[in-house]
Structure formats: C-alpha cells, structure tokens
Specification:
This protein is of the alpha/beta class. The chain has 3 helices and 7 strands; from the N terminus they run βαββββαββα. The chain has a 4-stranded mixed β-sheet with strand order 3-2-5-4. Strands 1-6-7 form a 3-stranded mixed β-sheet.
C-alpha cells in the first residue's frame, strides 16, 4: 500500500523522544505564514482539528494531518518527514529541542497516483 506520509528513522526516533516527554501528540503540516511549511507537533488536545483537516496517515502511531486546501495542492506528492539539527517552529513542541521536523516530498508516479485515487 502506498502511503501519503512516511518518516525517516531519525524522525521516528525524535518523535518517540517527544512522546516520552509530552505523552500523546499529533503532527500537522503547516501551510505557511508564521512558521513556514514545517510539520508542527502538538500535544494531543492542544490543537483543535476541524472538519476541513485531512488525516494523511500515521507516523510511529501518531496521526499526521493537513488542511484540505493544502492537501489539494500536495495530493500528488508523498510527504517524507525527517528530523534535523536546530530548533523547530515556535508553535511546535520541537521549538524547545535541539532537533526539529522538516518536510521533504516526492511526486507520486502515475501508477502510484492512480492507485491512491482508487482508494478514495
């Protein structure tokens, strides 16, 4: 099965570190503005999801969301979440760590995209 969001080993290790500190969390792909286009990490219950938010997948048993309008722009790509040195976006739990999440992407092949379209 083709996944819309995947994580590098570094991202999974960092996410598990965050969860050990803060408990259950969720990830939300920022659409820009104040914190750029970073994946934001929130303690579960600290971020209110709305009807226009799309669950893209799970990353180390952690849900990863994106707003529907942004999803329409990114639907042809697989998001690859990584963790790199440096502080994260100021609204995210990784803002107080020495590592932060970043989003990379790759365009789905035509075959992959057709398979994904048949699932929805």
């Amino acid at each position: 099965m083709i996944e819309r969001v995947i994580a590098t080993e570094a991202a999974v290790l960092f996410l598990n570190t965050i969860k050990n500190i803060h408990g259950s969390v969720l990830l939300y792909q920022s659409g820009g503005c104040c914190d750029g286009s970073a994946p934001l990490c929130y303690k579960e219950g600290d971020f209110q999801l709305g009807d226009a938010d799309v669950l893209l997948g799970m990353m180390a048993d952690t849900p990863f969301y994106m707003h529907k309008s942004q999803y329409e722009y990114w639907m042809h790509t697989q998001l690859i979440i990584d963790a790199v040195p440096g502080r994260g976006a100021e609204f995210s739990l990784d803002s107080i760590e020495e590592t932060h999440f970043i989003t990379q992407s790759r365009v789905f092949t035509e075959e992959e995209y057709e398979e994904l379209k048949s699932l929805f």
